[in-house]
Amino acid sequence: MCGIAGYFGSPFEPVEGRAALERMTSELHHRGPDDAGYWLDAEAGIALGHRRLAIVDLSPAGHQPMMSASGRYVLAFNGEIYNYRQLRGEIEQTGAAPAWRGHSDTEVALAAIECWGLLAALQRFNGMFAIALWDREARCLHLARDRMGEKPLYYGWMGRTLLFGSELKALRQHSHWRGEIDRDALAAFVRHGYVPGSQAIYRGVYKLPPGHYLTLASGGGEAGEPVAYWNARERAEAGALQPFSGDADEAVGALDKLLRDAVALRMEADVPLGALLSGGIDSTTVVALMQAQASRPVRTFSIGFHEEGFNEAQHAAEVARHLGTEHTELYVTPQQAMDVIPRLPALYDEPFADSSQIPTFLVSELTRQHVTVALSGDGGDELFCGYKRYDMMASLWGRVGRVPSPLRAVAAGAIRAVPTTVLDRCGKPLDALFRRYGRAGRAGDKLHKLAALLACRSPEEMYRGLLSQWPQPDLLVPGAVEPPGSFSSASDWPRLQDMVQRLMYADALGYLPDDILVKVDRASMGVSLEARVPLLDHRLVEFAWSLPASLRARDGAGKWPLRQVLYRYVPRDIMDRPKMGFGVPIADWLRGPLRDWAEVLLAENRLRAEGYLAPTLVRQRWNEHLSGQRNWSASLWSVLMFQAWLEA
What we know:
By secondary structure, the protein is of the alpha+beta class. The protein folds into three domains: about 1-230, Aminohydrolase, N-terminal nucleophile (Ntn) domain (Glutamine Phosphoribosylpyrophosphate, subunit 1, domain 1, 4-Layer Sandwich), CATH 3.60.20.10; about 245-585, Rossmann fold (3-Layer(aba) Sandwich), CATH 3.40.50.620; about 585-648, no CATH class. Helix 10 (about 315-325) links the parallel strand 14 and strand 15.
């Protein structure tokens, strides 16, 4: 695991070019504290920089940027190719293997590119990666990113110079950098709580989409369009057209085999390795399969909170006792958690507002004190129907979808006309229903949000509204035009008949890479910890997309096949309990210990002077939240994270 940075364009002066590259890579020290490397061709206008976190082949033979055996290619690479041993054997069988210098996956990746070409090599790679590859013969630069978007890669033209890197902070160190905030991207951010899709918070800067590569010819100019080497939509549609044909037992057996192999591949390391254990279905499955294939107790880590509604540590400890892992836990105080907040703008590098970023950083920090690599259970919800909102959406649309839209709009207006305080008193009987689909909360908040969904014209539009923190972001960000999202038009959606499957697909391509994986990558790499995600092995993803609805969820519960695999290793009575999110009590903190900090960032004169956000809307929500009239913690956290980032 590492960080990469570089630039490409016009010829440059070697000494100044080297200094610029060193500045860029030094900003990524946290991603790679073990080594730094630089490769420049001033005449060709290319500079590749690398910071190394040594995981496989700790010797100098793993140093990057690395040149291929023939001298044609130079590679700066962030991530891991998990099946590199298999690929090395296949290359040797062709008779085209180089004289190996070491046993790193980087060397195998270069040999694979020389043997089969870039496209075929990418299609063979099983891993998480962001790649910058310079072809000295063709004089072109290739950028590539893993299939599910586990590793980040930003790029953008600044004049006639293309800047690229693992994090925006590296790009900002180049003298050609100009950082104009993109108001349209800001509007998308306040809706989602993250900057979605290929956008970045700066105008003219982009994220390379997962499963794509980009080729840029020498001479500068504009980047071409990214090309997919793995088409998620085609894979999902193929899974629906040719679903898994076996029975339930065969599906569970096939999943068990795939999971075992995915986990085993990700246990390859020349440094201490462990796992993040929350005690939930996903992380417990990963740890159980690790322990089943390990020769000694697996190191597991969890954090706990003293607030009962936010603490899973006791469940993690019970799982660890049953599996026999070497378990470490840390109970953190609210103050310890809040002390992380000033570090968030620099850590996430662009506005990011999933408040579970706080416990994710804390558990990463704890884990890094003991190991260098940790496996996590992310991805299970999006692939195996784990979110309660899927069931809620199917149920809600099934009830209201047949009602004409105008009638639903009237009903929505009637609900919104009733003050939330009145609905709070009258809605007590609905508490059980609210708990079924998520944490219990004020009835008024829940019913007003429901009202906003009733007038939606399709289940996809309703789902977007359900996940929107500011449903009309152009009002909050004056002068902005929110860009169309990845799923804003009917043509963007895959041809999947099952509504739940469409929603899961949308999350797998949006919420998962842009929120969950960003959160995990920045939190873990912020403390030089490599996080690996077995459930996102592309073979597992494709298998999950082939499962019919009857195998994904049963008896009102999602993750049915994943649960059945887990029950082979852990008794049901340990695991069968309500799902609990990995969060912190932001709503209460904003009314208490974080109030003064928030007041400074949300001051009306400050908002007006900065000119990015509409002060009246922000202050209205802030006052309603402080009074207890509404719980606006999610939407306010987005505003606060932007304000804190802007200040930093």
